[in-house]
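The instructor's notes for this session suggest beginning with a concrete chain rather than abstract definitions. Hand out the sequence below and ask the class to guess, before any prediction is shown, which regions might be ordered.
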Amino acid sequence: MQTERIVGRYSGREKGPLFICLAGVHGNEPAGVLAIERFFRDLATFPDIPFRGTVLGLKGNLAALKAGTRFIGRDLNRMITPDIVGRISEIPKDSLREEYLQLRELLDQVHEELERSRPQELILLDIHTTSADGGIFSIPAENIESQKLALHFHVPIVRGMSRELEGTSLSYFAPEFAGFPCRAVAFEAGQNDDPKSELRSVAVIINGLKAAGCISDADFPNEWEHLLLEYASRLPAISELICVHPVNPGDGFAMKPGYRNFQPVRKGEHLADDKKGPILAPVEGMILMPLYQSQGSNGFFLVREFTA
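After discussion, reveal the predicted structure:
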């Protein structure tokens, strides 16, 4: 067992899901780790709480968290593919370096816990923050069960993101992982350095556990729910991805200052620059996750409000 990677673990008396809270997949996003620590401190004040299943808190990229950088050699949340996982599983662990070692150890920990608890299902909540300020939102995996779970978080939902991005935790874990049915949702809790990002993450952990049937409203109050509702009231309930602007090393990408999540943009608006010149919005929409940090492979995303 990798004690440094485990933030906390709690098992109830009743059989139920394995609910994994994952944070720090990017090392410059510590709010999720702080949120998981806070949640387990709060949970310890309810020693007799009726709890179904197991909740496990894990840190993602230990080396990057220590360095305070998004990643060391490669973005961990863009390399979780069957091909890479298959290759690193055949290499001795002491021969692996950087994110390849982090990925191997993380997946080993999940497999170890699945063998230990033999849950009815696996649920993954992957907590992140953004370099830009503005809105909060969830990104469910593409299976309908994950999308239904995201509705219970009480935050805006962005559809199509996990389908567009290769190598994320969502696309690898759901809808099935190691023979267990899996629901997976990522939560973007706010700006990296915003203290409320931690509290909003705690609120989503609690909402997720309630939706999974691990705890009930009566047994575990959610004192930070209002922080989610305050943000959600000003944002579209469901959005869908229109396009993403990729960034490669050496592009010289520089976002124009001042953009916030869900800020409307016009077609042709000057959003950023790189070595080739101005980068204009290809369509009208709302901007998400404009890149205001040196590391990252996506300059910005454009979404539009979803209407059935």
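Then share the key points. Residues 221 and 265 are 39 Å apart (CA to CA). The chain has a mean pLDDT of 95.
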